[in-house]
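Collaborator request, handled under Task 6.
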Amino acid sequence: MAKATQDYTKMMKDMLGAFPVDTSAMTEAFKSQATFADKMSKVVLEAAEKSTEISAGWTKSTIGKMGVVTNAKSEPTDYTKAMTDFASTQAEMSAESMAAFAEVAKKVQMETVELMLAAGKDMGEDATKAVKKATDDLTAAAKKATAK
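Structure tokens returned to the collaborator:
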């Protein structure tokens, strides 16, 4: 008497078929992440653009003011005055430029916090929906399996 070998492949297929997997939660998570990355990229690129404008303006002003320092002077004290004036102007421009950079950084920080809070809220809602759906699906599958 030969015993029939159990078909484990069929058994596993039947078992996994009883517990369907819903990939819509993963799709929604991917979409949320892509939207978040898009918004963050815009914040970063805008900050980079603004920072570049500040740097270029600062450089252009510095080069423009260097002409006064490099011009030939008739009196030695004129060189000292030109250097002193340049240093004073440069200190003022530095303070203005650093304040502008600080404003850019502050804006990036505020926008990042807003995006993070919104993303956290969205992810929390998505996770709640996914858990509820998975629970409902597993409950239905378990009821179906016990009814057989």
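The cover message to the collaborator said: "The two ends are 30 Å apart (CA to CA). Residues 38-135 form one domain. Please let us know whether this matches your experimental observations."
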